[in-house]
Amino acid sequence: MAGFHGGAYGWDMNATSLPPADEMYAAVVRRDARYEGVFVLGVTSTGIFCRPGCPARTPRRDNVRFFRDASQAEEAGFRACLRCRPLEARGSEPEWIAALLADVEAEPTRRFTDADLRARGLDPGRVRRWFRAQHGVTFHAYVRARRLGEAHAQLDGGGDILGTGYDHGFESASGFADAFRRMFGASPGRARGKRLVLVERLTTPLGPMLAGACDDGVCLLEFHDRRALPTQVRTLQSRLGAVTAPGRHALVEQLDEELAEWFDGTRRSFDVPLAAPGTPFQERVWNELRAIPHGETRTYAELATAVDRPGSARAVGRANGDNRLAILIPCHRVIRADGDLCGYAGGLRRKRVLLEHERGVSRRTHT
Q1: Is 50 annotated in the active site?
Q2: Which one of 6, 32, 189, 199 has the fewest beta carbons within 10 angstroms of its own beta carbon?
């Protein structure tokens, strides 16, 4: 993606760093839940990993390893703590972050400063670390991207460039144009008419996901820790002729509600409209994926036959991997002929849980 250096908003989501080890251990000693989402800790003497605020007895410092998220801890061989349950959703953000984000949404064109954070009783360093861990950028970069997304929408609605820049906190036309170009890879004038995809972090029982929507439909739903996420976003931008920015879209709000119902077992399909542009072959595969009933599976060979490409199971597998709408286009319902779950971009643990969840809902429905 041009400009903002990686990730869904143009930044590198894999370039996040952990706080200093001594600071993290001090947070563990205090059981400081404000570090929720910044790191998890693995305890070598027990083989488990926990949230920062876990109520269990504090481990010795030399028995602790720190990880950015649960996936890293699992890859290192640790299992989830049964007391603090670090694999379960605990709200999309800590209360102190939720209040700050509410202020941002109430005034999306405002320029927030460190003084604004301190006035709210927040340490700018802690805010910066949380945003780097969850969004890949500092709080100030996130807010600037949010303002630029609002500015793009105003321009697309017929606003003039100079007035739009001033309306969104930029003190000069040149400053606005430079920031806009770094964010979207084009000047404000050239970006007119491009679709705007608004992206937002959602919390699910399987971990945070990044959702995106334009007025055509939901076009992105991926697990936040998927390594190919930046590539998926770049492909989406190319397919839609779009730019992306953080922000809230009504279709993502609808998706959030439907996902909650789906995970609760009260919903088996989704009503939110989707925008899933791909190659003709990809779109045929994705349409067949949507036709697999809830609670059932198909093999890669069966899917290849369904799209009139028998013997192309590998190509079908690649199309599955290119799916940008996890759960909504249920590529998790495809398995190998021998019953092996095989690959899943979100991780085999998630694929197993998704299938078990659907089978459990189906059993309850038929009893």
Answers
A1: yes
A2: 189
